[in-house]
Design a protein that fits this description.
Elements: E1 2-7, E2 10-13, E3 18-26, E4 33-39, E5 46-52, E6 58-60, E7 68-73, E8 78-83, E9 92-99, E10 112-113, E11 117-122
Parallel strand pairs: 2-11
Antiparallel strand pairs: 1-3, 3-8, 4-5, 4-9, 5-6, 7-8, 9-10, 9-11
Length: 123
Amino acid sequence: QVQLAESGGGLVQAGDSLRLSCAASGRTFSSGTMAWFRQAPGKEREFVAAIARSAGSTSTSDSVKGRFTISKDNAKNTVYLQMNSLKPEDTAVYYCAVRVGAWSTSQGAMNYWGKGTLVTVSS
């Protein structure tokens, strides 16, 4: 089992920045995908960004490209989401997820999920 704990959410104003963190504990894994998803009020959960644990290659959704950056620290088993130029439409619960094995950014392919952290962006 892998436990995921997100932190860093909060209330900010449009244009501000936030950095989310997700610390993984429990079962260790050397490969796979670490990803961020988000769910806005009344909407389905959507993919935000992902990073390959071993190679470090990344994928970012078009809606946040150029504003959000995903990174990782393997020594700390932690993945980060740096969010800049935040917009009210970025308001959502942000979830960290892990897939152990081959690369994938599909929600259905994730093996473990965190409980989420709320990001609220006021206009």
